[in-house]
Amino acid sequence: MHLGLVQVHRGHTAEAVALLSATVAAREARWGPEHPELVVPLATLAEAYIAASDGTAARASAQRAVAIARTSFGDRHPQTIGALGGLGYVCQTLGDNAGALAAFGEAVALSREVHGPHDIETGRLEIRLADALGAAGRLDDAIAAAEHALVVVRGAHPDESTPVADAMHYLARIEAARGDPDADEHFAEAARIFTALGDVETAIAVVNARAESAMRSGDVALARRLLDENLARQRELGTGGINLAATLYVLAKASVGHRPAAELRPMAEEARRLSVDAGLDADAIAAIDELLGELAAG
Fold this sequence. Notes:
Largest sheet: none
Low-confidence stretches: none
Shape: globular
Mean pLDDT: 91
Number of strands: 0
Strand content: under 5%
Order of helices and strands: HHHHHHHHHHHHHHH
Number of helices: 15
Distance between the termini: 51 Å
Helix content: over 70%
Oligomer: single chain
C-alpha cells in the first residue's frame, strides 16, 4: 500500500488507484470485506480517487473506511478519527460542506478526547473544521479554530512546511469571508510556501481562493490577473480536474462584462464538464449553469 500512497503524492493517479484497489481486493480475499485491515487502504484509496477526480468512488471508499473503523475499533480510536478526517476531506473537496462539517466536527471532538487539544493530529483536523465552519457562516467560531490550529501546527513544524502553509491558507479563507485585510497577505504567503515545496496543485488552489476573495472585496482586476496567471500555468503543466474547473469558472465569472461572452462560454462549459466528471456537489454544478445562462443571455 505504501507504493500506492507514493503514487498519489507524485500525481500518478491512475497508478495509485490501481495499486490501492489491488491492495483492498487482496485484503478482502484474505480476511473478508469488513476486516479492520481494510480501513487504512480504503481511506488512502479515497484520497487517490479524489486526485483522479472520481468523487463518487472517493465518497464510497471514505464512508466504507469509517463504517469498518467504527465496527472494529469503536469511536474513540485513532483509526476511526483518521477515517472521519478522510471522509471530511472528501466531502469538502466535493463541495458538500454539511458532510464536511459533520465529519470534521466529530473527528475534532474525538481527537481532543483521545489525543488532547494541543496534539498535532487535533490541530490538523481543526484546520479543516475551521474551513467548514467558515463556509457555514460561523465566522467567529471558524477564526478561533483556525488560529488555535495554526498555533498547534507551528509548535510541531517549521514555518516553511506543508502543515503551516495549509493552516495559513484556511485561516486566510476565513479572514477573507469576514473582510479581514490580513487575508491577502496570508493567501500570498501560503501560496509561496506551497510553491517552494513543489506542491504546485495546492499553490494553484490557494491562488484561486485568493482570487475569489479579491472578487468579493470588489478588486475584480486583481482577481482576473491572478486567474489568468493560474490558467496559463495549468495549461502549461497540462493539469485538469477540480483545480482547473475552479480556475475556469471563477475567471469566466470575473470576466463577465470585460470580455466577450463568446470567449467565456467555452471556459464555463469546460468547467462544467470537469466538475461533472469529478463528481462535484449539485450546488457547484448549479452555479456554473447559472453563469452559462447569464452568458447565453448576453
